[in-house]
Amino acid sequence: MNRGERSGVTRDESVLPRHERGAGTVLALAVVAVTVTLTTAAIGVAGAWGARQRAAVAADATALAAADVASGRTSGEPCVRAEAVARANGASVTGCLVEAVVVSVEVSVPYLGWEASAAARAGPPGSR
Fold it and tell me: What is the pLDDT of residue 13?
């Protein structure tokens, strides 16, 4: 056996049949495509979760501020105060209900053409 030859196969001969050449490139592109798709989906889900959390925080703050007005701790109209607090938190009020000193609000936060929403209720201790 000469140098450069291994058991009768020269360096010029391919081990793979002609129709299988380049299959590794196609496989690598498929792996990259799947990785990009999964990463994009994960970012979308994480963003939606974040929007939902922002909506929950805005709903809590909005309900508390409106309940302060309803109970007389601050002046104004409860639902007007709710709108102002929601706007300051990047949300919009989709529902506001005042029952004596208890305020129930619903807010929404936009995210990629969708709306993440949350609801909250607040009032003085002991109120139902």
Answer: 54
